[in-house]
Design goal:
Blueprint lengths: L3 E6 L2 E5 L8 H16 L3 E6 L3 E6 L6 H12 L12 E6 L9 H8 L3 H10 L1 E7 L6 E4 L14 E4 L3 E5 L2 E4 L4 E3 L2 E5 L20 E6 L2 H6 L12
Parallel strand pairs: 5-13
Antiparallel strand pairs: 1-2, 2-4, 3-4, 6-7, 6-13, 7-10, 8-11, 9-10, 9-12
Length: 234
């Protein structure tokens, strides 16, 4: 890990900790977050972790940029990652079907395997939540195995159904609400990914892990899923 600090705004600094995306980054990110919260205390407004960076938003009326950098240096001195992941493990039921996962066939062709094998490979891995963004409750997860990686669609869809599970490059995610999107859709989850009444709003937070669990259509419906075909939303 090599720390570089970049100015984002008058009261924001970006800590660039890594140059490459890797699952092993997150323990360091979580340890840095804990140290920074302790050092900045009430002068910290927000921390935003991502794949390789950590944005520090501090109270510009209480701290000068130089003072903020001093606190960052203090927090990062002798930093060590947590030995255990303190995040939650979420199991998300997913109905994998061509009607809600229209890119299943495309991904199978790219990987040179069957659709059932794509489903098996996607669901057998436990994914790390790296960051939240794009929409409230949208968790960027990875890393998808290279055989299943696929670029975003050339033309994004105007409407992607809530709960849709997709792949973009080596990332995977589930859409918390209906929205535009260009990811390769493979299925749909009935889980509520964003709730204003929930503490923290988002079901998942950076540092959590996610396992997708294939379920039947009947179980998907029983859990409250909407089986409207994706093509009906186009």
């Amino acid at each position: 890990m090599t720390l570089r600090i970049e100015v984002v705004a008058i009261d924001c600094l970006m800590l660039r900790l890594f140059d490459e995306i890797a699952e092993a980054n997150m323990p360091w990110m979580l340890a840095a977050c804990e140290r920074l919260r302790a050092c900045f205390a009430g002068q910290l407004i927000d921390l935003v972790p991502s794949y390789t960076t950590l944005m520090v938003h501090y109270d510009g009326l209480a701290l000068s940029p130089a003072q903020a950098r001093e606190l960052i240096a203090e927090a990062m001195t002798d930093l060590r990652p947590e030995t255990q992941n303190r995040g939650q493990c979420h199991v998300l039921p997913v109905w994998y079907d061509l009607s809600v996962g229209p890119e299943l066939t495309l991904l199978a062709q790219r990987a040179g395997c069957s659709v059932s094998e794509v489903i098996r490979r996607h669901s057998e891995h436990q994914y790390q939540v790296f960051a939240l963004g794009f929409a409230p409750g949208f968790a960027f997860m990875g890393l998808v195995e290279e055989a299943l990686a696929a670029p975003r669609l050339n033309t994004p869809r105007k409407r992607v159904a809530s709960g849709s599970v997709g792949i973009a490059e080596r990332q995977t995610a589930a859409y918390p609400a209906q929205s535009p999107g260009g990811w390769n859709l493979v299925g749909r989850t009935p889980s509520a990914l964003f709730d204003r009444e929930r503490d923290g709003y988002s079901l998942m937070q950076p540092g959590d892990t996610v396992q997708f669990a294939p379920v039947s259509h009947a179980e998907f419906i029983r859990l409250g899923g909407d089986d409207t075909p994706q093509e009906a939303l186009a």
